Every structure is written in C-alpha cells, then in structure tokens.
C-alpha cells in the first residue's frame, strides 16, 4: 500500500481523476471487453467527478466502454430521492458523460429480497471479469464503503446496519437531522474491494487524520476496515496535507520519497474463446476435486497447461521407459518400463499441467 500526498484536496482529486483516465486508456476497452470501475459517493469524490466530466467534454476520455459498480446504497430510500446514491451518481457524473445506462450498476435498496440482490451484484461483478480499478473513500472512523467498524475483512456484498457515527456524519445531507438518515444500507464487502486489481482510496481533510493514522501506521484491523488495503498488492491512499496531521513526520517523508515506486496493476488479459465442452474433473495436489467451471481466461490457461503437461509427460515417460526397457531386457523391460513410464509420465505431466497453474480462487495465475 502506498500513500500519495498532495498539497490540497484539489490536487488530490486531480491525481485520482487523471489516474482513472490513464488506466482506462491503457486498457483500451471495447464493447466486448469493457473497463470495470468501482465508484464511491459522498462529498469526497465530488472533485474527481467534476474533473472527469471536464475531461470528457474536452474530448480527452470516453466512458462508452466502461462498466461501473457503485460501492453502496441506502435501504428503503426511493431511487429518485435526492440523497439516494442512484440520484447522486446521475446528478454528479453519469448524466454528464457517455456511459450506457445499462453499464452503470448500483445496488437496489428497495429490492424485495435484499440478500438475493447482494448475491446477484457479486455475480454480476464476477461476470464482468472483476473490477479493474476500485475508487473508494474513508469515513471518519476508518470505514470503507458501508463496512462499519467490526465488519469482517472477508465480507462480501450484503445488507448492513449503519453505525451511529455514520448516521450522524451523513445527516449533513438530510437537513442535519440524524432521524432522517436511513438506518440500513447495502454495501460491497471488504473482500469484494480487495478482489479488485487496483484500489485507490481518497482521504481528505483534518477530520480524517486520526482514522488515517490508524489505517496506515497501525496493523490491519476490522475496526478500521480501510486498513485492509495494507493487504492489497496494488493499493494507494491519496490524501491532502491536512489528512496527514495524525501521521508521524517520518511516515510522511517516507511515502513522499517512494511515491514514484507505486506499482501499476497488470492489465486484464482479453478473453479467449474456448470451445464449449464438458471439462475433465480437476483435482488439487491433495486429491480433492476442485470446483468447476472456472473463469474463461483461467480455463484457457488450464487447457494449455493440461495439454503441455500431458504431451511432455507422455513423451518423456514413453521415451525414458522405452530406452530403459531396451537396456534391461527387450521384452519384459520394454513392456514394464514403457507401461510405468507412460503411467508416471502421464500422471506427473497431468499434475504439472494442472495442479501448478490453479493457484487461487479468482481465476488469476
């Protein structure tokens, strides 16, 4: 995790907006291979959305082949309510750029079955190929999305009850009346966010300084869920100087000195067509059958690895067995060694072709 420090909120917002544009352009999205972007709401990202709209109107970026997933939504607030996150996104961003409405995904806080809505949202993210870049904010207590203090770091999209501090903080959007703020919400989980290929959190203002201190200088904790970004290989927290007031001087100097080393994520590979077929059972190194089907890119690599493993194992096994067989005795040696070589080569090749390449549960290698 890297900390990117800018002089003020305008400079921090510009950094994030330009990073989004850079990532989209690097990806070269198409209709069949869109860039997948996770988005937040609230007061923090307003400067980012303003710059993105300006860049779009100047012809510097297109959102035609971008798919978005918002982080959260209130439960029970009508979609057309001015403070629903659906209204927020269309008011501040979507209606000003060329994103297709069907590509803008926001949780439905009025769904008849909230658990089913959350499960469908997770499935839709997976079907889109996963999130390439997740932009996030941070609450004054260190929470990310609606993952309030105490949330599991392995959590997925789900219904939640908002913490009292969040309700009070959000009352500024509801006539400063906490009683008007919805008590419940839907949110992507911490694990959902960490599954993104890159995560960028924006933290602005002195009121966030204490929480930033705990999330950066203390250990990973479910009491400050933004701290989970310490576990991500390609995460950045972009903040202004005011937000660093709770950090040690040495911490600030360190991150300013290594900013240029912040890594960029590996681009998602294009999907490769795999002919429809019933896959062979796949077993892990302990002999347990693994889940199937796998995502298309992983399945493609699996097929290649499987084929190479079988070919190399079969060839080496047969060759070595045949040679040793002739040396030890033409008839019996040839038969036994050929058989053993074939079997061992096939087995080892099959294992090398499959077990070594299936290393995690999200289709990456």
From TrEMBL:
<dbReference type="GO" id="GO:0016853">
    <property type="term" value="F:isomerase activity"/>
</dbReference>
<feature type="region of interest" description="Disordered">
    <location>
        <begin position="321"/>
        <end position="353"/>
    </location>
</feature>
<keyword id="KW-0119">Carbohydrate metabolism</keyword>
<dbReference type="InterPro" id="IPR037171">
    <property type="entry name" value="NagB/RpiA_transferase-like"/>
</dbReference>
<dbReference type="GO" id="GO:0006043">
    <property type="term" value="P:glucosamine catabolic process"/>
</dbReference>
<dbReference type="InterPro" id="IPR004547">
    <property type="entry name" value="Glucosamine6P_isomerase"/>
</dbReference>
<dbReference type="GO" id="GO:0006046">
    <property type="term" value="P:N-acetylglucosamine catabolic process"/>
</dbReference>
<dbReference type="GO" id="GO:0005737">
    <property type="term" value="C:cytoplasm"/>
</dbReference>
<dbReference type="GO" id="GO:0005975">
    <property type="term" value="P:carbohydrate metabolic process"/>
</dbReference>
<feature type="domain" description="Glucosamine/galactosamine-6-phosphate isomerase">
    <location>
        <begin position="8"/>
        <end position="237"/>
    </location>
</feature>
<dbReference type="GO" id="GO:0042802">
    <property type="term" value="F:identical protein binding"/>
</dbReference>
<keyword id="KW-0378">Hydrolase</keyword>
<dbReference type="GO" id="GO:0019262">
    <property type="term" value="P:N-acetylneuraminate catabolic process"/>
</dbReference>
<protein>
    <recommendedName>
        <fullName>Glucosamine-6-phosphate isomerase</fullName>
        <ecNumber>3.5.99.6</ecNumber>
    </recommendedName>
</protein>
<dbReference type="Pfam" id="PF01182">
    <property type="entry name" value="Glucosamine_iso"/>
</dbReference>
<dbReference type="InterPro" id="IPR018321">
    <property type="entry name" value="Glucosamine6P_isomerase_CS"/>
</dbReference>
<dbReference type="GO" id="GO:0004342">
    <property type="term" value="F:glucosamine-6-phosphate deaminase activity"/>
</dbReference>
<keyword id="KW-0413">Isomerase</keyword>
<dbReference type="InterPro" id="IPR006148">
    <property type="entry name" value="Glc/Gal-6P_isomerase"/>
</dbReference>
<comment type="similarity">
    <text>Belongs to the glucosamine/galactosamine-6-phosphate isomerase family.</text>
</comment>
